[in-house]
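[step 3/7] inverse_fold.run input=structure_tokens len=250
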């Protein structure tokens, strides 16, 4: 089976030009499903921390198996890399590069991907996925650009006060659909900005989101704030939007 080109797993790497980012470009990696055809349009998953999702989350490996063995509709994955030294600055609303990064994502990345790959260009067929700060900035993007994004997968989202303030500023979030997960052993996790109870942060985010009318599936499971936990949960997370019997309608 592995020798058949129909079952080939393809990952392309690109440098996306940017007039917004000071370095002038951003690395992305693109997973193309088995049997990929340029004339077919595909749902698309956009990953924050793209390199980590591919290397540690094994999202391409999971997706390949789900499409081939469990008869999922094929989809494309776009992983957006981040410089770890700049991650907090880009992903947090009070960070120096937050506006530049979110504008790059919406105004440069999305048009580039949609002009080079046959991805579907409606909010219900674009899924944002992220871990920790990546999950929280995915929410920020959906709040800032509702015409582009309304579907989010959040793995242990770091919902600090600045993100909660963004939720509170929204008049309604009834267009938003989220699949959220946190590990019960994440109740005392130390970051570069302090020690946080991620369970409490996620519970509060869920409460605020539901008050605004967002539709969501929220799970708490045994797990720590690390890829060893998140990696195994990615298939269930993707299934909520992309599986043969999705939890949420398109």
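[step 3/7] decode complete -> sequence:
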């Amino acid at each position: 089976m592995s020798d058949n080109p129909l079952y080939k797993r393809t990952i392309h790497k690109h440098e996306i030009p940017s007039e917004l980012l000071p370095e002038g470009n951003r690395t992305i990696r693109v997973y193309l499903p088995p049997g990929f055809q340029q004339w077919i349009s595909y749902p698309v998953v956009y990953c924050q921390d793209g390199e980590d999702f591919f290397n540690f989350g094994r999202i391409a490996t999971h997706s390949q198996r789900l499409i081939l063995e469990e008869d999922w509709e094929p989809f494309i994955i776009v992983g957006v890399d981040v410089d770890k030294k700049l991650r907090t600055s880009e992903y947090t609303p009070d960070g120096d590069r937050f506006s530049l990064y979110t504008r790059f994502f919406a105004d440069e990345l999305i048009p580039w991907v949609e002009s080079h790959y046959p991805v579907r260009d409606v909010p219900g067929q674009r899924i944002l996925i992220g871990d920790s700060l990546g999950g929280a900035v995915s929410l920020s993007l959906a709040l800032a650009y509702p015409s582009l994004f309304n579907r989010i997968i959040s793995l242990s989202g770091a919902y600090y006060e600045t993100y909660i303030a963004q939720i509170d500023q929204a008049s309604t979030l009834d267009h938003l659909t989220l699949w959220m997960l946190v590990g019960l052993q994440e109740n005392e996790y130390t970051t570069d900005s302090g020690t946080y109870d991620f369970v409490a942060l996620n519970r509060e985010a869920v409460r605020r989101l539901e008050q605004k009318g967002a539709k969501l599936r929220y799970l708490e499971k045994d797990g720590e704030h690390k890829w060893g936990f998140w990696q195994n949960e990615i298939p269930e997370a993707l299934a909520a939007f992309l599986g043969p019997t999705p939890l949420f309608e398109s």
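[step 4/7] annotate
The chain has eight helices and ten strands.
The chain has a mean pLDDT of 95.
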